[in-house]
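User: Hey, quick favor. My workstation is busy. Could you predict this chain's structure for me?
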Amino acid sequence: MKNLYVGNLSHNTTEAELRTAFQAHGEVEKVSIVTDRDTGRARGFAFVEMTDAGEAEKAIAALNGTELGGRTLKINEAKPKTERPRSGGGQRFGGGGGGGRDRDDYRGHARQPREPRW
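Assistant: No problem, here it is.
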């Protein structure tokens, strides 16, 4: 079993078209066109799982750089998804900080109660 990345797809490419193109080179287990979560529109790439690794290599050699739907395909072996840190979370300003909570203005002396401001 080998998973292939197919890039630079036309947004109108269908799973059937991809399956047909790859089946000419071996048995296709699964075709997944990646779509945008919000719009449902194809994002321009897909994954094709082929049963035999040798046939997958032949498909890469035969189809990489060919045209489908007016676009030149970029095909290679899919790499496993790596864990990426989520943006927007965590500490932004790299180390330290804390706004002076631990600082003592009186350096070793007990703090004196303050008068009310009103």
